[in-house]
């Protein structure tokens, strides 16, 4: 009886299993589409394709091909859907089950969408019976047939140019020269000379000449030269076998004068490519490497055109799958006055230093100079390792961007100290102090620390005008003590100390009151009052700090991009108009009666303040000195110019800088 019951149970289970429905064709298609959307091509091939499909198309033609196309064509956001059948649909296993599918995707060449019918057949696989999908290459793209190839072509977008406020290009799509060798005319003994001139090696030249395509009479490219580098090109063309062809090349017409502002472009690095691969960059692209070329990369780059085509077999016309036209990069206009900047750069005569100029009424940045500098055109043509090492090892550090840094401002800060005291009501410009001797200290609690001044011959009483003319450190130290640390510190913060200079597109080091933003002692308070101690100031910020003397108390947010709104208030109510006029009068006296006589021009009335910041290590008796002059036209102040030159101790002090600044004012007045 037990055996009979057991046998009956087994037969019942088998019977019931046979009666259970296999997945419907819709359920199978839903699973297939789910794997398709996730890119599970191996799973689709193994378990969902009909036997005939798998016989016709090997797995690598199905799975590996679609995976590679996804990478090469930048396929993203793949979305496959199907049209659901009616609820009362009956499926006949003897007949194909048909559905309509929709495919959408994003590619490097733009969106692709298509609708297609799809069929499922009921087949028996070993011990399994189920529905399977018929497939051919048209499910990749509708016009793709066996034997066809898919190609992607690229149309390069033009990089946007950078122009100054008048539209003069400072970074443009110009021309240069491709230098090549015609092998049959080459004097082999001159290869080392060619290599040295092109910044390459004889071995690299041989590699180019030994390429498979080279023939004796063909032009073989071996290097480039900038259009401006006429001397080098002439030397090259004197060598037998050398020829040159004009090619498109990025150009920097102002060379060194604007180098640290514009920066330059160069080949994309592997690290950059990995980081930016989702933005469509390729290993052959050029990318901004320094300066505005780098900081404005997204605006300048543009978007290359892309075209995906099906190359048909048997010579038939190709079919376009998707196409995106190139979009050229944006032309970016700056507030910079390129000619004014060049004059300022040239006036500095290659001395290490920096300069900045702003329009006091708008905050527009007219010049940002770092001296000396490199020529960005050298980087475009291809710089040798030897030449780069020369720049790196140059004691004047031409690769170092000085306008992005901050330095002790010395006495150039004194007008700001005066403004804070006047605003606080602790400094009376007309009240004189009696100051005797070359050094001074408040009392014995200062120990060995004393404040020194350069001109002990200054006649008493010392009021604000005389303190400015003679740049009297003792006067300003006493005024700072009268204000107190809290008032002075708060006043400096009101002038923007401790804040990032709000200049869009550039990264500038903030000015600091001290390393920790506080003043810890009376001695430090005294030092800070005349721009020493731990105080550091960015050159653009320093120029901007003189704006309130010309605007009656307002300091504008500096702007560099011409399309930015100008005249934006950064700080206000720093002085009232009458107080600003008082400081203006003293700054004119500095040039007329003081120690900036190189700026005392007969035909151009200049006002300003000199400054000398001593950089002395502990134990040194004599350190280096950086010289400053912050100036403007006293009657027509269309710009403020702040200039700093390093190591002026042997060049006549800060008057040396005043003379350089005077050249800029003379140029501007004569335009």
UniProtKB/TrEMBL annotation:
Its main location: membrane. Keywords: Membrane. Pfam families: MecA_N, PBP_dimer, Transpeptidase. This is Penicillin-binding transpeptidase domain-containing protein. Transmembrane segments: none annotated. Residues 24-147 form the NTF2-like N-terminal transpeptidase domain. PANTHER family: PENICILLIN-BINDING PROTEIN 3 (PTHR30627:SF25), PEPTIDOGLYCAN D,D-TRANSPEPTIDASE (PTHR30627). PROSITE patterns: PROKAR_LIPOPROTEIN. SUPFAM superfamilies: beta-lactamase/transpeptidase-like (SSF56601), NTF2-like (SSF54427), Penicillin binding protein dimerisation domain (SSF56519). Residues 353-654 form the Penicillin-binding protein transpeptidase domain. Belongs to the transpeptidase family. Residues 155-316 form the Penicillin-binding protein dimerisation domain. It comes from Bhargavaea changchunensis. InterPro entries: Beta-lactam/transpept (IPR050515), Beta-lactam/transpept-like (IPR012338), MecA_N (IPR007887), NTF2-like_dom_sf (IPR032710), PBP_dimer (IPR005311), PBP_dimer_sf (IPR036138), PCN-bd_Tpept (IPR001460).
